[in-house]
Amino acid sequence: MSILLLEKRGPIALLTLNRPDMMNALGQAGDGPAVAAVCAEVVADKSIRCAVLTGAGRAFSAGGDVKAMKERSGAFGGTPYDIRGGYRDNIHVIVRSLYNLEVPLISAINGPAIGLGCDVACMADIRLAADHAKLGVTFLKLGLIPGDGGAWLLPRLIGASRAAQLLFTGDVIDAATAKEWGLVSEIYPADQLMDEAMKLADRIAQQPPQALRLSKTLMRQANTASYDTIMEMSAAAQALMHETEDHIEGVNAILEKRKPEFKGR
């Protein structure tokens, strides 16, 4: 069974990491292509306007498969050259696929999100946590570095000082600390987390889908592009949006004092 399950609920895609007997550990052979295939299906389906990512069972994801590391199998086996390939062709494919998902992505962190699991959660645009969730980037405790791009992303989310503190100590923080640091936006009782995540996804899904996807693209590109580049991209994208039926619908809805009905045209 695939590591990532896809359930379409109208305009919302529910993505579930599905290895509950191993706390959704990642890194087995084929995990990267499996995640990539699901993400490609979501992107290709223009009726999907938002996605929610969570974990099956009691964890979001415990991170890399430590047993596979011990056995030197899967993404962690073979020669150093093979291991490099395991990261590039498997682990990196997981995080790149989620990070580059065109629709807004919400992580509903339902339990521990550790190491790679924490970085996977951070690939989302918005992160919500259950009140008992724990988060940490504990790579150093395994004698490893963040091999999944976390060293690039985490400082951009919580600042260089907090990111360094979390990485260099290997501390695992609770949900309240994660919210204080800006790692998650909201905390909910565990039995309410998914309902709240789906409510938020539904609010997002009410937006015009073409403009929604392009807005996310601009925000992603803004992490590395110059201000002038983003201004040029914004002008070009805006010109396209002015020609959509959804733009006219939005204008008419404001003038007529009613709720707009965006159809993705």
UniProtKB/TrEMBL annotation:
Its EC number is 4.2.1.17. It is an enzyme of class 4 (lyase). Keywords: Lyase. GO terms for biological process: fatty acid beta-oxidation. It comes from the Bacteria. CDD domains: crotonase-like (cd06558). GO terms for molecular function: enoyl-CoA hydratase activity. NCBIfam families: PRK09245.1. Belongs to the enoyl-CoA hydratase/isomerase family. This is Enoyl-CoA hydratase. It comes from Hyphomonas johnsonii MHS-2.
